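## retry 2 of 3
previous attempt timed out at serialization; input unchanged, resubmitting
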Amino acid sequence: MTSRPVTSPTPSTAPFPLPDIRNLSPESVGASLEAAAKFLATHGIGATPLRDYRIGNRRIVLKEEQLNPTGAYKERGAATAVGYARRVLGAQRGICASTGNFAKGVKKACQLEGLTADIFVPVTTPKEKLRALQGGNASLERLPGFDKRYLPVIHKQGRDFGEAQAAAERYAAETSAQGGAGGRTVLLEPYDDMATIVGQATIGVEMIVQQPPEFDIVLVPLGGGGIAAGMCLAIKLLLKLNSGHPVRVIGVASEGATALYHSLRSGRYQTKKTTPSVAQGVSVERPGRRFCWKILHNLMDDVVLVSDDDVHKAMFLLHEKGVRAEGAGALATAAYLAGKIDPLDESRSARVAAVVTGGNVGEEDFSRCCERGKSLIDSKRRASRAGSRPSLIR
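## retry succeeded, writing output
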């Protein structure tokens, strides 16, 4: 393998200001997100489509983040985290943990910003995501500053994200204690860091610009809390600066990862063990506490829970519309299609938007999930249509 170069960056002016968690004003958030969006453009990250769909008897607006260059929204936060670490903190080496999508974003950002990287992933990471981390991407080579020598070192450790994160933290501490052999080392947080959250928040900025008249409800998945916190900053604060239109932001949790669901329901931060789920990308036992929890506790309107069956059905129904979503990517849409949103919010005039967060799933797994979803829907159609809660398939 080509050796990874080491340079000595000089810390410079921040490419985007970070909002102060102690004083989140619409003005400061707006300035930060506008600058972050401009920075992301230098990494080849532009606006993804926001399109109306009719699925069954429901209309929904989908923000299609699976169409990002790396196939998921997480490259936004990865780019801003790496950019801030390199340009402001003077980092030469980044260390992170990921279940796959954040790692892909970190790999790309490090090759553009000139950082060496060590990426820790669970041993259960899908092989398709591992191949993407270890392979090249010809489209990236056209971006200014790209250097293919900055290939990450992949460490497969731990049974889940929590164990991989713990391994990354230990490695970062050991590296720093040894004097940072490869230059100043920064632990890149996949969700609980303002530089990461600001990157994810640009999704909401795009939605505000792309969708007049405004939507009434935005559904966003819950895992570690990064995208949810970012969407709350954009929709609840930035939209407030530009419009008086009230919009509810509702978090959607998987039954396999309920830490944020129970935290927000109880009003008290909690950690919860995860269980195996098709929504592997949100499998987080310890959500972000320093930043994510504080933002969500103050700004998120509601939370709902969906099952794996709900997600399988949503994956199939989205696939029928030409939208490829991985399990976690279909989470927000699943809540609406399964009738999990409060009926009071489902008036005919309400416009509902959901973020499809990613589509990085192998063909075999994708086919199996869609077949499961179709089977569930067919069985439901054959069964009694009795029941009081509205849903797409009753």
